[in-house]
Amino acid sequence: MDQLQQSLLEAPIIEKDGYHYFVHPISDGVPMLEPNLLREIVIKIIRKAQLENVDKIVTPAAMGIHISTAVSLMTDIPLVVIRKREYGLDGETPLFQQTGYSENQMYINDVDEGDSVLVLDDVLSTGGTLSAICSALEDIGADIVDVVAVIKKVGGENELESSPYSAKTLINVDVEDGEVVIIDSNGDN
User: Which domain range does residue 38 map to?
Assistant: First the structure.
């Protein structure tokens, strides 16, 4: 069994406002992220993502940063982090992100019309984050080459499914009876 699958099966589950949330080093930074797990994930992303002609990797703060940094280092593709803080820089584009458990204003810098981007995130659950990011990137005029999330939590409404965008995932899971259940160990293509 691969490390990602095993680590998800061992992940503790918490309930937050009626939402069953798994606590995992990729999505939460706790427990500690082992280098071998991160390496496995990065290799899987590089194999699954369409990287040809990608100018920039775009990821939301905070939990996409460690994954995207590692992919950037392995591919030499520059990294853009979508921040929750406004800087007021020229070309800064705001977006509103709503998930199953939070709402945030976020800001994109350093993505221009005509840029070819890979959107990369840790978890696809409600689709609120990725849908908002893809819409904002489209408004900027960027070409979204591919969208990849490491983990997809199935079993609920997913905004991305009703949008023109789709995401590849490395593994699909659900939470049943207080435990993570592997739905598809290969994720979505």
Answer: 3-184
Whether residue 189 lies inside any domain: the answer is no
Q: Contact 32/22 with Cβ under 8 angstroms? A: no
Backbone angles phi, psi at 71, to 5 degrees: -65, -40
Cα(72)–Cα(66) distance, integer angstroms = 10
Number of domains in the chain: 1
Tell me the per-residue pLDDT of 79-137, one tens digit each, with 9 for 90 and over. 999 999 999 999 999 998 877 667 889 999 999 999 999 999 999 999 999 999 999 99
Q: Which two tokens stand for residue 120?
A: 């990369």
CA-CA distance, 57 to 69, in Å (whole number)? 9
**pTM for this predicted structure:** 0.95
